[in-house]
Prior knowledge:
Number of strands: 0
Low-confidence stretches: none
Oligomer: single chain
Mean pLDDT: 77
Shape: elongated
Order of helices and strands: HHH
Radius of gyration: 26 Å
Number of helices: 3
Structural class: mainly alpha
Number of domains: 1
Helix content: 55-70%
Amino acid sequence: MRSIALDGSRRADLLALGLGSLTWAAAVAAGLWLLRSELPADLRRKRPATLPSLAAGEAAETMSSGKEP
């Protein structure tokens, strides 16, 4: 961060912020990769259940209870 001269302009501030953020993101990604962390896989979203199968399951529950839908 000290290699970027800040002259007080917004452009210089944004450049310093962007480069600093990019550096930290690269360091974190490298650390997670080197340590073979399971965190990225855990953070990925699981696919939601499909609606037709969910509706079929609810219909089966309703039919087994003896109530009309």
